[in-house]
DNA sequence: CGACGCGTTGAATGTTGTCAACATCAGTGG
DNA sequence: CCACTGATGTTGACAACATTCAACGCGTCG
């Protein structure tokens, strides 16, 4: 089994770099301006903007803050360890991370995924503490965002925080359903559907296709299975033409039909 | 399979009755006053008071509000349905409830338990919506509490809301670990340990013993197993002298040793 | 080249689910 | 008071699902 976890990575090393033109671009983004330099907006900011309607001034402030506070983290390093105090909210600008827990005997469970546009540490109360270790699954870019108390309660960002928490909960419940009551086949199908659904607003998924950086072993840790069984189940899904996986990409060929088949549910908001 | 769910019970029927002397008693409660009428405080209020230090004035207000707004709900009825708006926070004064979801084919999963002192609808944002149906597993008494926005942010109750949310999350993560990576034997042991741990501050568990109103089928729904397998696994636990179950009570004989054996973790706060 | 991570495969084993039957008990109504 | 009913717990035989262990291919990277 491969080993994740490498405490204290270069979290504090590199600064800005991709955040360069974010501010202007964020401002530029309006429903009509669909192409051009719009591409350069980070997936995380794009996804954040889909959560609520953010006005121009807010977008500028967020984009600047993202630029100023951006950090890059290498795959496999720990973003956060269980019990750590969380000083300020963090936004995932790009890359994948996950909350995980490991048992003494080595069994490992991925608790929830953190994808571009997801927030960490907007939790609960004034002294939030990480409830689980967070590991970067790919190279990840993150930035700080204002604490909830610093926000105008009626601002778009405050609403985005609220919605983000609700979605977190929704996906935790989905995870519980998967692990408790779905077969391996259904779990994987449901999981892939969720990935597509969550990546799409970040602008990194289109037409049923999305990046799939997870190894089969990590998928196994996410689904409470072994990597061998994930492998065999993926083969079944491929054989049936449901999905194509390879080259770090996945494609769902009949998302709607598949969702129907495995009873996949989308968030109700 | 037994059918839960009975939409719209007599939620709106009976009023106060056990809440009679709550106010005085709540006030009376101080570390020294251990016995006497103290017994009459509802498990839910007792548990709530253990979450943070509530000053006298706060206790009085809460106890009065509990008395004024108390409702009783019969076992098997729905307290709330997925998608319902949640007008105000609810506190469980006594009895057990659960968040559950059912799949089209009848498979059912208990997502999380709600025990005396647990809160519902302190969720997220200003327009919280129930993410899952909530079913009363036993007869339940509930009451309203103030909305977070109505509280002094520095009050003990606000702190209790924060802590309650954190604990909710903790127990959801525990549920994910159980379902994803524990064997049936470990799941049940871990679950029983959690029950004891959560019921103790409500004053309804002592010396390893606690009320156990769940049928084996409900335990199965909680643990992602079948009732037949729960039955067999419970027999193993009994045979090994780990637990005694019967007469709607359960007793753990070596909680500490059991926790060690199955790697059970307690909340870190 | 060698080491390593990752995906793949086969065979054997283990765990959990399914189906069906029966025991017990509490409650219900004749 | 008894027969009936329904919910719950229990058991056995069997099937299905998932894990384990071990091995190998393939590509990447140093």
Shape of chain A: globular
Alpha-carbon distance between the termini of chain A?
39 Å
H/E element order of chain A: HHHEEEEEEEEHHEHHEEH
The tally of structural domains of chain A comes to: 2
Please state the average pLDDT score of chain A. Answer: 87
Structure notes:
2 copies of one chain form a homodimer. Chain A has 2 domains: 1-173, Jelly Rolls, CATH 2.60.120.10; 182-264, Winged helix-like DNA-binding domain superfamily/Winged helix DNA-binding domain (Arc Repressor Mutant, subunit A, Orthogonal Bundle), CATH 1.10.10. The first copy, chain A, has 8 helices and 11 strands. Chain A has helices at residues 22-28, 43-51, 56-69, 156-181, 184-199, 216-223, 227-239, 255-262, and strands spanning 71-73, 78-80, 90-94, 97-102, 108-114, 119-120, 133-136, 140-144, 209-211, 243-246, 249-252. The radius of gyration of chain A is 18 Å and the shape is globular. The model of chain A is unreliable at 8-39 (pLDDT under 50). Chain A binds chain B through residues 82-83, 99, 101, 103-105, 107-109, 111, 123-126, 128-129, 131-132, 159, 162-163, 165-166, 169-170, 172-173, 175-177, 179-181, 223-224, 263, 268-269, and chain B through 82-83, 99, 101, 103-105, 107-109, 111, 123-126, 128-129, 131-132, 159, 162-163, 165-166, 169-170, 172-173, 175-177, 179-181, 223-224, 263, 268-269. The structure holds a DNA duplex (30 and 30 nucleotides).
């Amino acid at each position: 089994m491969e080993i994740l976890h490498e405490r204290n990575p270069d979290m504090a090393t590199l600064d800005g770099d991709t955040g360069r033109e974010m501010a202007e671009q964020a401002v530029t983004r309006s429903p009509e301006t669909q192409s051009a330099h719009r591409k350069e907006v980070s997936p995380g900011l794009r996804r954040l903007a889909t959560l609520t309607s953010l006005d121009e001034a807010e977008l500028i402030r967020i984009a600047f803050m993202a630029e100023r506070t951006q950090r890059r983290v290498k795959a496999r390093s720990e973003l956060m360890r269980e019990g750590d105090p969380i000083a300020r909210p963090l936004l995932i600008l790009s890359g994948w991370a996950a909350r995980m827990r490991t048992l003494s005997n080595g069994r490992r469970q991925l608790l929830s995924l953190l994808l571009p546009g997801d927030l960490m540490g907007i939790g609960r109360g004034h002294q939030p503490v990480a409830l689980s270790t967070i590991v970067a699954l790919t190279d990840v870019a993150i930035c700080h965002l204002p604490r909830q108390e610093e926000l105008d309660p009626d601002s778009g960002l405050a609403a985005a925080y609220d919605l983000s928490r609700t979605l977190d909960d929704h996906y935790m419940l989905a995870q519980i359903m998967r692990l408790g009551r779905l077969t391996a086949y259904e779990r994987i199908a449901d999981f892939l559907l969720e990935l597509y659904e969550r990546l799409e607003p970040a602008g990194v998924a289109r037409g049923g296709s999305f990046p799939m950086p997870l190894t089969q072993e990590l998928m196994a840790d996410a689904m409470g299975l072994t990597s061998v069984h994930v492998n065999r189940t993926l083969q079944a899904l491929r054989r049936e033409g449901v999905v194509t996986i390879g080259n770090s990409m996945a494609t769902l060929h009949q998302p709607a039909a598949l969702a129907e088949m495995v009873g996949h549910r989308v968030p109700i908001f």
